[in-house]
Amino acid sequence: MIAVKQLSDVKFESLVKTINEAFQDYPVPMEFTSDTLKTKLEGVNTNLDYSFGVYDEEELVGFVIHALNGAVAYNVITGIVPRYRKQGSVYDDV
Q1: What angle do CA 60, 65, 71 make, to 5 degrees?
Q2: Residues of 28-53 as b/e, b for ≥16 C-beta within 10 angstroms?
Q3: pLDDT, averaged in runs of 10, over the chain (94 residues)
Q4: Dist. CA 39–CA 25, nearest whole Å
Q5: This prediction's pTM
Q6: Residue 38, CB half-sphere, CA atoms under 13 Å: how many?
Q7: Distances (CA, A) of 9 to 15, 51, 85
Q8: Residue 76: its pLDDT value, please?
């Protein structure tokens, strides 16, 4: 069952794995280590309380990560792993 939940309690290694999997088939390679992802997210004031994950049971399969700049929120990175794309999974359950 697909569910959308806040990312505030996500295990960071799970987030790194899912982000890397979501971008594995992109034309421009993008792969993060725990350190490089942490640096990127901290550098733009990411707030996981305002960010959301798409879960299939307990597996993180997608994400929408936001940062805050004063009263303005903006998208930092969004993705879904390839096997869940084009299924309407997220929008059917939000």
Answers
A1: 150
A2: eeeebeeeebeeebeeeebbbeebbb
A3: 92 98 92 96 94 95 94 94 80 54
A4: 23
A5: 0.88
A6: 7
A7: 11, 11, 24
A8: 96
Neighbours of 92 (CB within 10 A): 8
Which of 76, 48, 78, 45 minimizes the C-alpha distance to 64? 78
Rounded Cα gap, residues 22 and 84, in angstroms: 10
Distance CA 2, CA 56 (A): 5
Delineate the domains of the chain, giving CATH numbers in brackets.
Answer: 2-89 (3.40.630.30)
| Residue 2 confidence (pLDDT) | 87
For 51, the token pair is: 């960010």
Strand partners, 66: 75
Hey, which residues does 63 pair with through a beta bridge?
53, 79
| Tokens representing residue 44 in the block | 């733009």
